[in-house]
Amino acid sequence: MNEKNKKLLLNYARKSIKSVFNGESFVPDKIPSDLKSIGCCFVTLNLDGELRGCIGNLEPFEPLYKNVINNAVNAAFKDSRFKPLSRSEFNKIKIEISVISSAVPLIYDDYNDLLNKLRIGQGVIFKKGFYQSTFLPQVWEMIPDKIEFLKNLSLKAGLHGDAWRDDPDIFVYGVEKFSE
Questions:
Q1: H-type helices in 25-180, by residue range?
Q2: Are strands 123-128 and 93-100 parallel, antiparallel or unpaired?
Q3: Which of 20, 67, 147, 179 is in the most buried spot, having the most CB atoms within 10 Å?
Q4: Which residues, 6+ apart, have CB-to-CB distance to 138 below 8 Å?
Q5: Phi, psi values for residue 66, rounded to 5°
């Protein structure tokens, strides 16, 4: 993605959040054709270096520019881990967008093979029955140990910390990350 489109998407994200404070919906005027392609992303909000909201999609279903707008609003106001963003916080947040590539299954034989094949820096989707979770590649910066990473991914899915040893389906993906 070129720098112009990255800046445009960050602008869309910020304007979409601001529009909610004004009781409006943000609709961009001119949209480059490549941002109209079906795509998906996560929008992460940070405040004073701490997570303040993060919402996204792993499967593309709408034009990328719309996905950015919707996920920005949802990260600001609908992330259940946080209270809705306040006006006073709005000017202090830093917006990060992670455009998601298609996830591919990670084929492995057992949990030792999983540890060998898993690469630090990949986005990871964990699926076990009806339970699912994901960590963006950026989470490796906070949890660089593979076992701890998978343990936390299991817990995030609502399972016990060793559920990653019980033959879950694992998918990996990459992101193109950019921020204000």
A1: 64-77, 87-90, 111-117, 146-156
A2: unpaired
A3: 67
A4: 44, 98, 175, 177
A5: -70, -40
Number of helical H runs and strand E runs in the chain = 5, 10
Residue type for 96, please? E
Kindly state the average pLDDT of the residues 32-58. Answer: 94
Q: Quick check: 70 pLDDT over 90? A: yes
Residue 89: Cβ-neighbour burial (10 angstroms; 0-12, 13-18, 19+): middle
- Full set of structural domains in the chain with CATH: 3-100 (3.30.700.20), 104-173 (3.30.1490.150)
The single residue listed with the structure tokens 């204000």 is 180
Q: Identify any residues that bridge with 44 across adjacent strands, giving them in sequence order.
A: 54, 96
Using the structure block, give the residue that is written with the tokens 């950015």.
Answer: 68
